[in-house]
Amino acid sequence: MCFNKRVGNVRRQTVRGKTLAALRKLRELAIVGRALASTGHPVMAQIVPMRFCNLSCAYCNEYDKVSEPVPLDEMLRRIDHLGRLRTSIITISGGEPLTHPELDEVIRRIRKVGALAGMITNGYLLNAERIERLNRAGLDHMQISIDNIEPDEVSKKSLKVLDKKLEMLAEYAEFHVNINSVVGGGIREPNDALVIGKRALGLGFTSTIGIIHDGSGQLKPLKENEAKVYFEMRGMKKRNYSRFNHFQEAIALGKPNDWRCRAGSRYLYICENGLVHYCSQQRGFPGVPLASYTHQDVKREYRTAKSCSPNCTISCVHQISYIDHWRGPQSNVISPGSNSHHAGTVPELVSIRNADS
Ligand code: SF4
Ligand code: SF4
In the beta sheet, which residues pair with residue 276? Predict the structure, then answer.
């Protein structure tokens, strides 16, 4: 069944589409309300069902070419545990999640535990039938990162390759679609981000812009022409939640941010081995099995300062942490290699290279 009627190039939602979007908005408002009322649960978990990726972006080390899918029963156990922790949003990432053969069941389980279901994908494997299946599974949000207009040796996530997929999404997707473009990190033409953003808005999607960080998720100031594109994009309509803070602006200008990272608490990164990490950049901390992660761990990490926070560029963790920016000062610190938490100076954390989180 066709969900959206496209008029020219613009996505026009049907009554059913508008109703679903309104219900989703209500669920999102409830999530914000619950997050404000209580600090004892994760607001977002990113979970990896598949480390394998069908692409090989030059700046990325979040994928391999050999991993098998995480078995479905194991994925369901992990999602059930995130449900017990009262996680509000579960976002599937990778590798490339669409290469997991039982992804629809994973999405269904996320909805069954009461969480909002999101996915970050390169979009290559989308077609009308696949989009309809994602609709039926109950996907709420999809993000596709597009790096350039023409594919090159750095990235094949290109508008030229993906534009037909975007048109299909405009026609069939019941879920919210965000197109993220990037500047920095070896992307040859900063102006490509503007073209990609305008195309996304033209199709009726939302559009965001990210800054590619260095190998440890840390600050790497933009060049003048990159910063110009960044700020022009920010001036476009349909911006997301990040319009309400200045985290990314400071990064674009090469300035550190003063904030409290709530990774390990309000935000969890669950790797393919089922371990909890602060984020894709700090795999290894705390690095413990999700199955044994408790509300006590969530509370401890809420109070734990991360030494990498001033120059961090992981905007999704910042956005989640921003909910609590006015409360909960952090008194614990972490010792390198020991996973112990005590008062004192904050050491360097481990760093693992990543791509788009
Ligand atoms: S950035 Fe995404 S699409 Fe590119 S190799 Fe990494 S996981 Fe795959
Ligand atoms: S500040 Fe938080 S989100 Fe950023 S790299 Fe460190 S642990 Fe990850």
Answer: 270, 288
pTM exceeds 0.85, yes or no: yes
- Looking at per-residue pLDDT, the higher value among 225 and 51 belongs to 51
Atom 7 of ligand 1: nearest residue by CA position: 95
**Alpha carbon 228 to its chain's center:** 24
Domains of the chain (ranges; CATH) run 11-334 (3.20.20.70)
Say what the pLDDT of residue 175 is: 96
pLDDT digits (tens, 9 = 90+) for 96-110: 999 999 999 999 999
Cβ contact 172:2 at 8 Å: yes
Q: Which atom of ligand 2 is nearest to the CA of 264?
A: 7
Residue 15, C-beta contacts closer than 8 angstroms, at least 6 positions apart: none
Both tokens assigned to 165: 């997929």
CA 58 remoteness from chain centre: 19
Q: Which ligand is nearest to the CA of 320?
A: 2
Cα-to-centroid distance, 161 and ligand 1 (Å): 15
Helix (H, G, I), strand (E, B) or coil at 255: coil
